[in-house]
């Protein structure tokens, strides 16, 4: 009996839940109640919050109906998101372009400030439709025009 208890105890200790590690296995948030959230793009090298440079995500809807779009940013060490993709998500009408930024910039008006202070992070672009074209870029956020991009 003691061996059986020891074996059961060992199995219980070893059967722990896996740690969340960022864009690969963190559960997707529901960015629009009643709709499925899709992980469309992964973006490496996200910077924001310090050093005068930020990451910007420009997305254009190619759908015929409005879609909800969000950007979820993760730090370099994995773990949970550095921002709330639900509250920073946007409704995008057909043909419209929106810009998300890890912080605001002097040279361009962003539609959604992600407020995500990260260095060497990553992000995933989420939407309620696959009909979305996006690009990401890093640029100087303090100068107009930007001194670097």
Your description of this structure?
This protein is mainly beta and 149 residues long. It has a single domain, classed as Hypothetical Protein Tm1070, Chain: A. The protein is 9% helix and 38% strand. The protein contains one helix and eight strands; from the N terminus they run H-E-E-E-E-E-E-E-E. Strands 1-7-3-4 form a four-stranded antiparallel sheet, with no helix packed on it. Strands 6-5-2-8 form a four-stranded mixed sheet, with no helix packed on it. The termini are far apart. Residues 4-17 have low confidence and may be disordered.
- The first-to-last residue Cα distance is 68 Å
The CATH superfamily is identified as TM1070-like
The amount of helix comes to under 10%
Please name the CATH architecture.
Answer: Sandwich
The string of secondary-structure elements, in order, is HEEEEEEEE
Q: Provide the CATH top-level class.
A: Mainly Beta
Largest sheet, if any? 4 strands, antiparallel
What class would the helix/strand composition place it in?
A: mainly beta
Give the averaged pLDDT, no decimals.
87
Low-confidence residue ranges: 4-17
How many structural domains can be distinguished in the coordinates? 1
- Tell me the Rg in angstroms: 19 Å
- The main sheet orders its strands as 1-7-3-4
- Label the overall shape: globular
Strand content: 35-45%
Using the coordinates shown, work out and report the CATH topology: Hypothetical Protein Tm1070, Chain: A
How many helices in DSSP terms?
A: 1
The beta-strand count equals 8
């Amino acid at each position: 009996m003691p061996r059986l208890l020891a074996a059961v105890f060992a199995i219980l200790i070893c059967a722990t839940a896996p740690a969340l590690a960022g864009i690969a296995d963190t559960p997707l948030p529901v960015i629009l109640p009643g709709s499925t959230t899709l992980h469309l793009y992964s973006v490496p090298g996200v910077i924001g919050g310090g050093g005068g440079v930020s990451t910007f995500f420009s997305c254009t809807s190619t759908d015929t109906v409005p879609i909800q779009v969000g950007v979820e940013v993760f730090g370099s060490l994995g773990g949970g998101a550095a921002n709330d993709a639900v509250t920073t998500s946007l409704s995008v009408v057909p043909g419209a372009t929106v810009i998300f930024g890890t912080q605001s910039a002097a040279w361009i008006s962003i539609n959604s400030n992600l407020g995500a202070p990260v260095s060497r992070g990553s992000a995933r672009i989420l939407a309620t439709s696959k009909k979305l074209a996006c690009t990401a870029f890093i640029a100087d956020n303090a100068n107009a025009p930007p001194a670097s991009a």
